[in-house]
Amino acid sequence: MNYLAHIFLSGPDRQIRLGNFIGDAVKGNSYNDYPSAIRKGILLHRAIDDYTDHHPAFIECVRRLKPCFGRYSSILADIYFDYLLASRFQEFSEVPLKRFTRNFYWTMILYRHRLPARIKRFMWHFIGTGRLDKYASVGGIRNSLEIMVRVGRIELPVERAVDYLATHEEELWVDFKPFFGSLQLYCADWIATHQSAKGK
């Protein structure tokens, strides 16, 4: 899953959300350098990635993308799934997308001293451009992919990826909706079983 889904699946705790958001930037055992609630979010991020990578719906989505996108198929599946969450946010949340994302941008600002250096470098651009909100439109997905190509120097065919999303959105939704429902239950259970972790 990509940024928005990781944050959304974290529950209401700001520090758990932050930890889940920075999860990819925290390697190995360095999560132990963080306060317990942020550490919990980092570990939840890893649990979500493992659950997703082994879920039949995600595996099938990646399989269908492979002929067109090769090694970038799993990256695109993550982004497509974030688009489906953002564009139909009301299916999963009573809080509107804009209110949810503004709340998280404030979390980033409040805990900016806890952000890894790599995330600090793009933090203000991320907030200023409303990056999480942009996942709700095909144009925003195009822009996100263009940034990935430019910054990551990868050879992902952006227009082909956008065309695939536009053409296969309903097909992707059929896979995504039950998958995400099961992932929500998994995360709620994971968080409940780790309630003993107290923030510092």
From TrEMBL:
Keywords: Hydrolase, Lipid biosynthesis, Lipid metabolism. InterPro entries: ACP_PD (IPR007431). GO terms for biological process: fatty acid biosynthetic process. Signal peptide: none annotated. GO terms for molecular function: [acyl-carrier-protein] phosphodiesterase activity. Pfam families: ACP_PD (PF04336). This is Acyl carrier protein phosphodiesterase. The lineage of its organism: Bacteria, Pseudomonadati, Bacteroidota, Bacteroidia, Bacteroidales.
